[in-house]
Specification:
CATH superfamily of the largest domain: RecF/RecN/SMC, N-terminal domain
CATH architecture of the largest domain: Up-down Bundle
Number of strands: 15
Radius of gyration: 22 Å
CATH topology of the largest domain: Glutathione S-transferase Yfyf (Class Pi), Chain A, domain 2
Order of helices and strands: EEEHEEEEHEHHHEHHEEHHEHEEE
Largest sheet: 6 strands, antiparallel
Structural class: alpha/beta
Number of helices: 10
Strand order of the largest sheet: 2-1-4-5-6-7
Number of domains: 2
Strand content: 15-25%
Shape: globular
Distance between the termini: 24 Å
CATH class of the largest domain: Mainly Alpha
Length: about 375
């Protein structure tokens, strides 16, 4: 899939912005820090996942003193079919988000995944040493594009955790009996089993490709594993459900005074093990960055295979963080995909593509 055009309205630093992309696969956005390059990447992320890839609330994306933002794009599929994608968020008169496919409003869950995309942001470079929430988000952002049933599961999980945690506080204050937890334990076990099963399958797919991907980047170890870390052991959904239910019951004595749920997929993690040891501990900074590039390649491969569409690749100010050898491998791998690259200045490997000058809320083709 390719972006043909991108239009922004009251989005971040842009009052209005209209871009027409050329036929080159590489689109280079060049400008100083703070010039608005990342805002364009973030806007494309909204069209892919309906949310900010930077993890901020939509009201924080609206241009100062405006009441809404709009992101719209014309796209063409690999088969040559044209369509439009649009996301609108309004803060007044009431807070709401609307998604449109070819000018027809569709449910949020239907919209997600319509524009396959993989992003590579500066904060991603620390994924192996960052918090578990960052690693869970990596799996979840890929799964919502690969599996249309996954986003509803994630939304159910968030609602269930909110309800259960509120109930835990009421039980601790003596307002309601402990037995009232049973219905929420059943719901959390059910949705948690679906999420863990989906993550397990994805982790298995990543693990099968990871050694070869790392070898392509010049990183060869005897034994490389992608390990999904969870408090359950079963492989099938029914077995996982039963284990989560048992954990929730056993941990009530801890959860009630704490007012929070300590068992479930929201506490899971993953790690890449090199000869049985965590990459975040034994690998150098450069090796860890190669590890994330390998995960990027795998994400692109999985999306292309399962969606039957080549995803768009978003590289936001990260090439300068890689050495020349890894830059070369990354750009070579991206050559068959439309790739949006932001950079403060042109690097030696960035010689082919359309170059855009970004600065002070304006973007112009060089």
């Amino acid at each position: 899939m390719r972006l043909l055009s991108l239009s922004l309205e009251f989005f971040r630093s842009y009052d209005r912005l209209d871009l027409l992309f050329g036929s080159n696969s590489m689109q280079l956005l060049v400008g100083e820090n703070g010039s608005g390059k990342t805002n364009i990447v973030e806007a494309i992320g909204y069209l892919s996942q309906g949310r900010s890839c930077l993890g901020v609330k939509p009201e924080d994306v609206i241009r100062w003193n405006d009441g809404h933002f709009r992101v719209r794009a014309d796209v063409v599929s690999d088969a040559g079919s044209n369509s439009t994608l649009e996301v609108v968020f309004q803060q007044v008169p009431s807070r709401a988000t609307a998604c449109f496919l070819s000018d027809v409003r569709v449910p949020f869950a239907t919209f997600i995944g319509s524009l396959p995309a993989v992003s590579f942001l500066p904060q991603d470079l620390g994924i192996f040493t960052g918090p578990p929430s960052q690693r869970r988000a990596f799996l979840d952002s890929l799964l919502v594009q690969l599996d249309p049933t996954y986003l509803p599961l994630r939304m159910r999980l968030e609602r269930t955790l909110k309800q259960r945690n509120a109930l835990l506080k009421r039980i601790d204050s003596g307002e309601v009996p402990e037995n009232d937890l049973s219905i929420w334990d059943e719901e959390l076990a059910s949705v948690g089993a679906g999420i863990q099963r989906a993550r397990l399958l994805l982790s298995d797919s990543i693990g099968k490709q990871l050694p070869a991907m790392l070898a392509r980047l010049g990183e060869e170890w005897k034994r490389i594993e992608f390990s999904y870390l969870r408090s359950t052991y079963a492989q099938d959904e029914d077995g996982i459900r039963g284990e989560i239910l048992t954990l929730l019951n056993d941990r009530r004595i801890k959860d009630i005074p704490a007012g929070t749920t300590t068992a479930g997929p929201h506490r899971d993690d993953w790690d890449v093990l090199i000869d049985g040891r965590s990459m975040g501990i034994v690998a150098s900074r450069g090796q860890q960055r190669a590890g994330f590039v390998a995960l990027l390649f795998i994400s692109v491969s999985l999306l292309a295979e399962r969606k039957k569409e080549k995803p768009i690749i978003l590289l936001d100010d990260v090439l300068s963080e890689l050495d020349e050898a890894h830059q070369e491998v990354l750009l070579r791998h991206c050559s068959d995909y439309q790739t949006i690259v932001t950079t403060a200045h042109l690097l030696p490997g960035l010689k082919i593509g359309d170059v855009w000058d970004v600065g002070s809320g304006t973007v112009s083709r060089k």
